[in-house]
Amino acid sequence: MNNIVNKNIVLLITTMSSFLAPFMGSSVFIGLPSIGKEFSMDVVMLSWVSTAYLLAAAMFLVPFGKIADIYGRKKIFQYGIAIDIIASILLVFSFNEMELIALRVMQGIGAAMIFGTGMAILTSVYPPGERGKALGINVAGVYLGLSLGPVVSGFLTQHFGWRSIFASYLPLELIIIALIFLKMNGEWADAKGEKLDMVGSAVYGLSLAAMMYGFSILPTIQGTQLILVSIIGLVAFVKWETITRYPVLDMNLFLKNLVFTFSMIAALINYSATFAVAFFISLYLQNIKGFDPQTAGLILVAQPVVMAAFSPVAGRLSDRIEPRVVASAGMAFTTAGLFLLSFLNVATAVEYIVASLIILGFGFALFSSPNVNAVMSSVEKKFYGVASATLGTMRLTGQMLSMGIATLIVAVYLGNVQITPVYYPVFIKSMNAAFLVFAVFCFFGIFASLARGKVR
After folding, report:
1. End-to-end distance of the chain based on CA atoms, in angstroms?
2. What three-state secondary structure class fits 257?
3. What is the Cα–Cα distance from 245 to 243, expressed in whole angstroms?
4. Quick one: 3 and 86 in the same domain?
5. The total number of structural domains that make up the chain
6. What CATH number does the domain containing 26 carry?
7. C-beta neighbour count of 285 within 10 angstroms
8. Are residues 63 and 3 in the same domain?
9. Residues 70 and 204 in one domain
10. What count of other Cβ atoms lies within 10 Å of the Cβ of residue 456?
11. Are 300 and 278 in contact (CB under 8 A)?
């Protein structure tokens, strides 16, 4: 570090950026119908407005985490914000669907630079005894971004059109970059002198792209083939990383660090089991229960609001109690919430739905920040960027897997049809089956979480 660092300023900047990235990801959903009408886009092309952002962020998270460890986390962090500012301005004036999707890729790359470094900077600044609290506040920013995205964009789209969604990112982006230049002293580059593994980065990125695209087009043969190709690519990546001198992802982190390995597995399981909940409940509330989008959105907000409220508490708890205990309890609550949702039917009361979502949100809050604390406390300083980026990749990969599993189950039950009243009973069966599968996932996740061993 070059100068004395103000920890509170770092916490403010990184929490605002942790809010921004998921806000940019979740806010677009509400605007998709308007975008589709303006550009005459079909459903598959329209889905790529969201998927392109997720895919780019996941592909570049680990490489940029490593680049940040080598050349400086603050430098890469501020470049990420600058890229997102440019992308946001250009998105407001995008004139066709291909430009829109390309700019969403650009925005995803910026988000990867932000997410791959923010958590690492925070961990560099806060000592172990205070880290859980800081990470809890940071994780609360993520959930706040996820929950406010659809609410804010719904209001903006209705009153000012879909382009205003992208304009809404600019004030916060400009505040963040101003604070970085004016208030954030110091630099963190604990792997200075190492080289970037270009081969590993390319194989990793392409394998992840094949997997995510494959899942998005399941249950087609091409989807299955792409997933097989991605698995072969990831096996080749692991082998390459064990023999190259400067790996983009040090396999020793997984092979010799049980806490790190099982924390990553637990995170992947948790996100795989929970991300598609909003997808199913949104369709259920609007189609089966007949609620308007605004009411459905307000019911769905119960889950992320509870996450945001309890994440800092869970983070503080994990500074005092072993993180695996707190995180495993969270996984158990998540399992219970998913199990309760597997009983939804036409006559289910709104109170039951909200209560189930609250239990789910509480479980996720108990799991997430202690899990992050366990990961970041289990590695050396020079791996903070890569560890933070790997965790982010597990989150994004889990989200894509969750949607892949949801799509597959719906396709098996319903086939390629629209959800009309005649298909409501079958849709409910597919939703119940999906929640049951997710609950079983989380149940096994409890044991993966417990198996990580002690951090302290």
Report:
1. 26
2. coil
3. 7
4. yes
5. 3
6. 1.20.1250.20
7. 22
8. yes
9. no
10. 9
11. yes
Final residue of a structural domain among 180, 214, 245: 245
SS3 state of residue 135: helix
**Which of 158, 180, 195 is a domain's end point?**
195
Q: What pLDDT score was predicted for residue 90?
A: 95
d(CA 454, CA 39): 53
CA neighbours closer than 13 Å in the CB half-sphere of residue 362: 11
Question: Which structural domain range is residue 127 located in?
Answer: 1-195
Same domain, 172 and 321: no
Cα 371 to the center of its chain, rounded Å: 14
Are 308 and 417 members of one domain? yes
Confidence (pLDDT) at 2: 41
Give the Cα separation of 69 and 380 in Å (integer): 12
- DSSP 8-state code for residue 381: G
Cβ pair 84, 24 in contact under 8 A: yes
Question: Are 224 and 318 found together in one domain?
Answer: no
How far is residue 253's CA from residue 386's CA, in Å, rounded to a whole number? 10
Q: Render pLDDT for 128-141 as a digit per residue (tens, 0 to 9).
A: 777 777 877 887 78
Integer Cα distance of 143 and 385 in angstroms: 21
Tell me: do 186 and 204 sit in the same domain: no
Q: What is the pLDDT of residue 3?
A: 44
Tell me, what's the pLDDT at 193?
A: 67
pTM, entire model: 0.75
Token reading at 98: 């291909």
Alpha carbons 158 and 166: distance in angstroms, whole number: 14
Cα–Cα distance for residue pair 420/426, rounded to 1 Å: 10
How far apart are alpha carbons 131 and 319 in whole angstroms?
7
User: How far is Cα 161 from Cα 4, in angstroms, rounded to an integer?
Assistant: 45
CA angle, 435 as apex, 137 and 306 as ends, to 5°? Answer: 25
Tokens for 31, please give them. 């605007």
Supply the pLDDT for residue 1: 40
Low-confidence ranges of the chain (pLDDT < 70): 1-5, 30, 42-44, 47, 186, 188-191, 193, 216, 293, 385, 415-419, 453-456
Residue labelled with tokens 């049980």: 258
- The answer to whether 450 touches 324, Cβ cutoff 8 Å, is yes
Q: Are 150 and 209 part of one and the same domain? A: no
Provide φ and ψ at 345, rounded to 5°.
Answer: -145, -175
